[in-house]
């Protein structure tokens, strides 16, 4: 007879140790995945901040360009009005002088 009261005890211990090793492997894998996700989230946060800054800069530039284009359009309209008035004056002044 053996000194061990339960002959299945070493098998149970081995099974528990194997289960502990499996759980350790799963936990190591989960920790690795968590760190990867944290890195991805950090990168995403940096990209988001960069895009936000670029959007602000874009909006500022569009406002500046819109003002510049408005000024150019106004200048062009004033020049066209001045040319039309000048042409009308050149045509109408001689006609008016002829009839007076």
Automatic annotation (TrEMBL):
Q: Which GO terms describe its cellular component?
A: cytoplasmic vesicle membrane
State whether keyword Zinc-finger applies. no
Which keywords appear in this protein's UniProt record, sorted alphabetically? Coiled coil, Cytoplasmic vesicle, Membrane, Transmembrane, Transmembrane helix
User: One GO biological process from the UniProt record?
Assistant: vesicle-mediated transport
> Which segments constitute the V-SNARE coiled-coil homology domain?
12-72
Location (main, coarse) = membrane
- Give the subcellular location: Cytoplasmic vesicle membrane
The record's SUPFAM superfamilies line, in alphabetical order, gives:
SNARE fusion complex
Asked whether the keyword Transmembrane is assigned, the reply is yes
Q: Identify this protein by name.
A: V-SNARE coiled-coil homology domain-containing protein
Native source species: Dictyostelium firmibasis
């Amino acid at each position: 007879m053996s000194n061990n009261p339960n002959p299945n005890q070493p098998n149970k211990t081995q099974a528990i140790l194997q289960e502990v090793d499996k759980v350790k492997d799963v936990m190591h894998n989960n920790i690795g995945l968590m760190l990867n996700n944290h890195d991805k989230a950090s990168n995403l946060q940096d990209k988001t901040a960069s895009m936000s800054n670029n959007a602000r800069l874009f909006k500022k530039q569009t406002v500046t360009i819109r003002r510049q284009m408005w000024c150019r359009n106004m200048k062009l309209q004033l020049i066209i009005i001045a040319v039309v008035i000048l042409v009308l004056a050149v045509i109408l002044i001689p006609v008016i002088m002829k009839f007076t």
